[in-house]
Amino acid sequence: MSSHREAPEISKDPVADSTDVYAFVSPDRPDTVTLIANYVPLQAPAGGPNFYEFGDDVRYELHVDNDGDGEPDVTYEFRFTTEVRNPNTFLYNTGPIPSLDSPNWNRRQFYTVLRRDARGREQQLAHRVPCPPCNIGPLSTPNYPKLADAAVRDLGGGRRVFAGQRAEGFYVDLGAVFDLLDPRPFADAHEHFGLKKFPQAGPGVNATKNFNVHTIALQVPRSDLTRDGHRVKDPADPRAVIGVWTTASRQRVRMLDTELNNTWATGPYRQVSRLANPLFNEVVIPMGQKDFWNTQPPSGDSRFAKFVSKPEVAQLLPVLFPGVFPNLDVLNKSGAPRADLLAILLTGIPPGLIPGFQNFTGRTQADLVRLNTAIPPSDEPSIHGLLGGDLAGFPNGRRVFDDVVAIELRAIAGATYPLVDKNYVPDPAAAQVDDGVTPDSLDIPYLHRFPYLGVPNSGFATPSE
Question: Which InterPro entries match (predicted)?
Answer without folding.
Answer: DUF4331
